[in-house]
Design goal:
By secondary structure, this protein is an alpha/beta fold. The protein contains six helices and seven strands, in the order E-H-E-H-E-E-H-E-E-H-E-H-H. Helix 3 packs across helix 4 (139-146).
Length: 206
Amino acid sequence: MNGKLNPPPQRLILASASPRRRELLEMIGLPFEVRPVNIDEKTLAGESGAQAVLRLARTKAMRASELFPGRVILAADTSVLVDDTILGKPESRQDARRMLEMLSGRWHEVASGLSLIDREGVLSEALSSTKVRFADLSAKEISAYLTSDEPYDKAGAYAIQGAAGWFVEEIRGSVSNVIGLPYEQLRTLCLRAGLPLPSFGAPPRS
């Protein structure tokens, strides 16, 4: 033995300011640091929801990789889809009401794109899709929900892990995807990149 200690592994860089994604990573104990990047998040003409979330996640990851070369980068993008309509974050209270009225009493899809760039610069991607059915929402319920702060920074104007869980009748697929970071695809990408296992919330040993 040469008496030298191996340096601790570098933390994953999460290229997102989303508190939901941060909370999901913290829950499983995956070491990371938050380094959000700014990109144009508008969808392109003729682009499907799946194409959009993958492209946007890739763009975020590549931008972060330029800023932090040699680091492992994770980026994600999530959209709510009703038929062929992509619902992003509402621009106003009226826009949020319009979205919730569209979601009322029907199925919709939540799609998330994940992009991970490893230390060698190799990009891996994954797509997750979850079906969610809302109950029939009364105008009174929608108005009451809109008085909270919850709808306004969420795709589709709702947070399933928050008060809007009251609206949900059925889910088919990943719940963590609806929150914004699908564990199932994340695990695959992390293992493929050779990242150390998370601590699963256990406190670090002294």
